[in-house]
Amino acid sequence: MPDSPVPPDPPPYFRAHVFVCCNRRPDGHRRGSCAARGSEKLRDYMKVRAKELGLAGVRINQAGCLDRCEFGPALVIYPEGIWYRPETPADIDEILETHLRGGGRVRRLMLTETDVVPKG
Amino acid sequence: MPDSPVPPDPPPYFRAHVFVCCNRRPDGHRRGSCAARGSEKLRDYMKVRAKELGLAGVRINQAGCLDRCEFGPALVIYPEGIWYRPETPADIDEILETHLRGGGRVRRLMLTETDVVPKG
To answer: Can you give the residue range of the structural domain that contains B64?
Structure first.
């Protein structure tokens, strides 16, 4: 007898789901932290601007430690799994316009496979 | 002249990235909230169990409000974008084993496109 067919996955709930690391470690921690590098203000700005731009199906969330602290402030956009290191509101604007509105990439701000956290 | 080729995206940094909504609203809020429905304990349990299971490339994070409060406690797994509503540690175990270790789906716990937040 044939197996039952596997049902398809539901359609994506959000077209793009952004997670901004807002983890904060104590001052002077060896790894630093995204919040210590200013991620909370960037998150707030990104939420406001995404709403102003009326980007349908885009959700901006804060998240706990994404474990790329050394390369923060870090954010990741799913489902495509692209990571960025924005440092200014202008960087956030460029990610919103180029990536989230246009479907492109902001190469100069992307983390890549060479941005690896040192062991130990 | 041909356009420059578009560079490929970097490989995924995590094989599976789980976000557990830990938003908490005041008691009695009309929408409720995932933390009020017990998500923080489920997040803690999931982090511990994922580590015990030694699931390589799997990251468990908390997140701010994922905006499916009525169907919480909510979590989402990317890049596949599958949403679950776990209510017990046993539900978490099943998601870890079936989805994150086995690549399958726990249909009975999945949110689907019919789980839509009421307007207004």
So the answer is: 16-111
